[in-house]
């Protein structure tokens, strides 16, 4: 924070905090996005989460962490203003996005019909079911939870004059890509029900942006709906303090948290099954693009800032959007560099000191040799960067896991 910004905050000259709603705010990605939003001191964060795969304790830690860091940045002799305090407090609601009336009630708490500038300024929509394998077994559940809930959310946003959306999408929208690294112009051809829910939601949001833009062109005085879809690859790591991190329920389905659980003893199986070692990659195992979860969270904040009408960033992001197409853009968030399964295992061995055993088995259906982002568009237009390397991701993940071997459950114990 600059001296000018700090002085403005101390003298009360800064603008009021913008209300930003984060769906899925208590989850792994959501909690780090909430933390990064709080760190800007620009937003009042509201979280909606049904805790299907998360615990409320994560946001309690985020709030504590934000307050500690803000106090440290101001110095011991500086008294926090009410705005400072408000910027670290999260309004957290235990609510399911499929419950239209409950979500609508939350929006209504922040909205005044007399002051249309109030209410929720923007939404970061992260909440979704996200297991590819599970989605093939219960596709209707995925379409209802991911697609229907998104449509419900969008209709409520329009009702309450909330016209800024950052949508949490996925690299799964590309399916098996025809070229690697994968640019945003790649056709959307998902291979799973989960991936197709992301494609469908993107299309719904894009259609909404286009219809809103057409209405403005026809003389509507309403603010046009704007949205940025973030297609990210494989988030990893945790906050370096070890206070927040990934806490999946049951056996982790992703490689890095599985390795962390093996090292800490939560997964007793001593052998990691490696699905194929005959791919055309550096060591024959599948290659994926991993990025630190805080770099990913920073991308969400940049996207939200890009939705500020009249800003230089807003004009830059939507400059290439053709007239009549609406203000919708999609960006890849990744490092643009792939790491193989065996490289990940070796990095985690160095971070944890745990001697992993591996067993090569047959290829897994649906796996492709390499999935690597081309993040150049996000770098050029959003100013996105992912500087954390694999060593840092593994170190931060292990710092979280060894300090919280049972995840957030320890905060649920009452004495």
TrEMBL record:
Domain of life of the native organism: Eukaryota
Pathway entry: Carbohydrate metabolism; hexose metabolism; Carbohydrate metabolism; galactose metabolism
Pfam families assigned: Epimerase
Any one GO molecular function term: UDP-glucose 4-epimerase activity
Family to which this protein belongs: In the C-terminal section; belongs to the aldose epimerase family. In the N-terminal section; belongs to the NAD(P)-dependent epimerase/dehydratase family.
Native source species: Lentinula edodes (Shiitake mushroom)
Biological role: Mutarotase converts alpha-aldose to the beta-anomer. It is active on D-glucose, L-arabinose, D-xylose, D-galactose, maltose and lactose.
This protein's name: UDP-glucose 4-epimerase
Lineage, opening ranks: Eukaryota, Fungi, Dikarya, Basidiomycota, Agaricomycotina
GO cellular component, one term: cytosol
Stretches that traverse the bilayer: none
Cofactor: NAD(+)
InterPro entries attached to this UniProt entry: Epimerase_deHydtase (IPR001509), NAD(P)-bd_dom_sf (IPR036291), UDP_G4E (IPR005886)
Keyword rRNA processing: no
Catalysed reaction, written as an equation: UDP-alpha-D-glucose = UDP-alpha-D-galactose
Keywords attached to this entry: Carbohydrate metabolism, Galactose metabolism, Isomerase, NAD
GO biological process, one term: galactose metabolic process
Domain NAD-dependent epimerase/dehydratase: 20-310
Presence of keyword Isomerase: yes
């Amino acid at each position: 924070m600059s001296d000018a910004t700090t002085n403005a905050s101390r003298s009360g000259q800064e603008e009021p905090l913008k209300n930003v709603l984060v769906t899925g705010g208590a989850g792994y990605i959501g909690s780090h996005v909430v933390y990064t939003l709080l760190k800007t001191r620009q937003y009042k964060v509201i979280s909606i989460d049904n805790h299907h795969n998360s615990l409320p304790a994560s946001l309690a830690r985020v709030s504590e962490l934000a307050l500690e860091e803000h106090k440290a940045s101001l110095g011991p002799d500086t008294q926090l203003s009410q705005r400072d305090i408000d910027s670290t407090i999260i309004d957290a609601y235990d609510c399911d996005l499929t419950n239209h009336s409950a979500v609508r009630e939350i929006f209504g708490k922040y909205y005044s019909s007399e002051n249309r500038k109030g209410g929720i300024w923007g939404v970061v929509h992260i909440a979704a079911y996200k297991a590819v394998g599970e989605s093939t077994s219960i596709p209707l559940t995925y379409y209802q939870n991911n697609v229907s809930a998104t449509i419900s959310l969008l209709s409520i946003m329009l009702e309450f004059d909330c016209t800024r959306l950052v949508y949490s999408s996925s690299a799964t929208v590309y399916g098996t890509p025809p070229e690697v690294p994968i640019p945003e112009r790649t056709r959307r051809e998902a291979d799973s029900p989960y991936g197709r829910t992301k494609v469908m939601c993107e299309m719904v949001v894009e259609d909404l942006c286009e219809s809103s833009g057409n209405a403005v062109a026809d003389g509507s005085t309403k603010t046009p709906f704007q949205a940025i879809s973030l297609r990210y690859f494989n988030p990893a790591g945790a906050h370096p303090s070890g206070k927040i991190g990934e806490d999946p329920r049951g056996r982790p389905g992703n490689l890095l948290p599985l390795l962390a659980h093996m090292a800490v003893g939560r997964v007793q199986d001593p052998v990691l099954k490696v699905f194929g070692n005959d791919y055309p990659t550096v060591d024959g195992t599948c290659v994926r693009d991993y990025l630190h979860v805080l770099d990913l969270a920073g991308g969400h904040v940049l996207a939200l800032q890009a939705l500020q009408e009249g800003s230089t960033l807003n004009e830059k992001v939507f400059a290439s959007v053709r007239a009549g197409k609406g203000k919708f853009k999609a960006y890849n968030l990744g490092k643009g560099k792939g790491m193989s399964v065996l490289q990940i295992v070796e990095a985690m061995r160095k971070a944890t000191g745990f001697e992993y055993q591996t067993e090569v088995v047959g290829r897994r259906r649906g796996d492709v040799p390499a999935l690597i982002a081309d993040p150049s568009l996000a770098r050029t237009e959003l100013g996105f960067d992912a500087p954390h390397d694999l060593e840092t991701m593994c170190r931060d993940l292990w710092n979280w896991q060894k300090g919280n071997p049972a995840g957030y459950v320890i905060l649920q114990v009452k004495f």
